[in-house]
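Box 4.2: Ligand-aware structure prediction
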Amino acid sequence: MVTEEQQSGEQWVPDFTVDLAPDNPRELVLRNPVIPASGCFGYGIEYSGIVDVQRLGAFVSKGITPAPRSGNPMPRITETPSGMLNAIGLQNPGIRGFIRKYPPIWESWRVPAIVNISAEAVEDYATMARMLDDVPGVAALEVNISCPNISAGGYCFGWDPVMSSEVTRAVREATTLPVIVKLSPGAVDVIEIAQAVEDAGADAVSLINTLVGMSIDTRARKPVLANNTGGLSGPAVKPVAVRMVYQVAQAVRIPVIGMGGISGLADALEFFMAGASAIQVGTAVFSEPGMLIRLIDDLGEWLRANRIASLSDIVGVANPRFHSTTVRHSEIVAEMVGQ
Amino acid sequence: MTELASPTQHPTGWSREFIGEITATEPVMGDSVLVTFTSPPQLAASCRAGQFVELLCRTPQSSDPLLRRPFSVYATNPARQELTILVRPFGRGSAWLVEQPVGAILDVLGPLGNTFTVAPKSKNLLMVAGGVGAAPLLMLANEAVAKGMNVTYLLGAMNAGGLLAPGHLPGEVEYIVATIDGSAGRQGFVTDLVSEYVQWADQVFACGPEPMFRSLRREVLANRFAAKPTVQMSVERTMACGVGACLGCMVETRRGMRTSCVEGPVFEMDELAW
Ligand SMILES: Cc1cc2nc3c(=O)[nH]c(=O)nc-3n(C[C@H](O)[C@H](O)[C@H](O)COP(=O)(O)OP(=O)(O)OC[C@H]3O[C@@H](n4cnc5c(N)ncnc54)[C@H](O)[C@@H]3O)c2cc1C
Ligand SMILES: Cc1cc2nc3c(=O)[nH]c(=O)nc-3n(C[C@H](O)[C@H](O)[C@H](O)COP(=O)(O)O)c2cc1C
Ligand code: FES
């Protein structure tokens, strides 16, 4: 609803702010809901001179691991219909090198920096969270659970509710920072995973990470990527992402951050209406970096034109069971499988 | 880091993502096209040989082909505030680009990447180009001739029609060609011409396909003394972001992986891991 105060002003300003960790005293309040996604915005400095970083709601860093990683052999990326596959292999300087280099730069920025962390053992996630807990310049953690668990024979943490819960609990106990757990679309039942990480203390969930895919070079008769498989992202994954956000937003009470193929206002609105409180933009940053700021402006224009006072008024409007306390897991699944 | 003034402004006052309008197109080298488009004046003035631009090769409403395509800068015209690129229709992106008429609008990111580096003491420069690899070396040849250096420019193509007309090069340049079918210049590969110039050259600059680089390296190693001359190569990798953010375009060097979009595309041959 537009308040009288807002209505009386000629150019009233819609309320954009969103708190992604309402239950955490350290909170994660964003001035707007637009966030470049992990791996697609480097460390926030690469796009200076192209994107006004300080206007973003927040940004997520490239995934950081306990030790430095030189990443996968080339080729690491290939284009696919309305999408791309990537197998970067988490190239990063490791947590120690990272802490020395980047948070000091971010300390004076007004845009919150969210650090994405990846590991192959529960203790390593916890160690990184502990090291980041009081680093100035770090606003929150995003825990990438689309990683192989070495002690489980390399099975992906994010595909198993128990392992996902263990990682979340270990990180929760290691830091008071807001903790966002980033869900994997490869899980058989993403709803179960979302509920498990909520119970384990996550402040918010973000989804989706990339879907595992492959392209084959028919001339060379082998996969295009040196790693064989890669993560699919871009417009091609959007319908899958919207469906998963819709389901997860029914099953949990914590904020949901939606992503997957967002390239402009129309896409972002789908995610908000499905139940996302904020959105991340990944692949589209590569092709249209200017779109990030345009999206913030377009969203404001759209809210104004539709006389919607607050973004929260549209979050979940297309989702009758959004944040429902009564909906049962079986009902959500039935809607998916029933057709 | 201070706050930036407005959405896409560089601290020095210009933006590296800009809308360019095509002001001229000219068919060259058979099926290729020189595409000239407007750019912010500071960008045209600051751009140096070896740098490239990334173009969206579709309308913004479409999502295919999704990623930008990199194109080396062929020429700049700071007075007219223009950049020129040389495009060979190859796949979907380049085919779309060569069909854009004068007046069409392009979404441009750049100039990006490092530049060729000419040592202050160098007098004799050898340039080795294969196909559209001619582009960044043409710009370098212009810069070098303006500084009074001697330039020998070798270009290879399939046939006479695929060569750059001599009028496109500055008159001071010694221009020598090779064609696979022998319809112009020496019959064979451009690298067959290299050996006799290696000892004359203070520096070698190259741009072309990967097999050309391998032959060039063989020729240079076989003919040079005491690691002189050095060779700078503009290498080609599939790119996504163009600004060092995605780490998808890496080149393996003796000192580890380097981004070809920011730390390249120009690398010292002796630094590359072969
Ligand atoms: C730094 C840099 C500078 C460049 N400068 C120029 C330039 O000045 N002029 C110019 O015309 N091009 C240049 N390119 C190449 C250009 O960016 C595109 O790769 C090329 O135009 C093909 O894109 P496309 O969309 O037309 O083809 P696509 O549709 O992407 O390609 C079709 C098929 O060919 C394959 N393919 C793509 N590129 C190559 C290749 N080079 N060799 C072999 N197979 C390939 C793809 O994998 C795909 O299967 C440059 C590239 C780089 C990295
Ligand atoms: C090149 C590239 C690198 C990525 N790196 C990471 C990463 O380090 N950690 C992570 O959690 N997600 C990573 N992602 C996944 C994105 O953050 C995002 O979840 C996914 O790409 C879907 O969004 P999009 O379709 O908008 O790109 C990466 C994606 C791409 C394309
Ligand atoms: S293209 Fe993204 S790092 Fe080079």
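In the box above, the bound molecule is flavin-adenine dinucleotide. Chain B has a mean pLDDT of 93.
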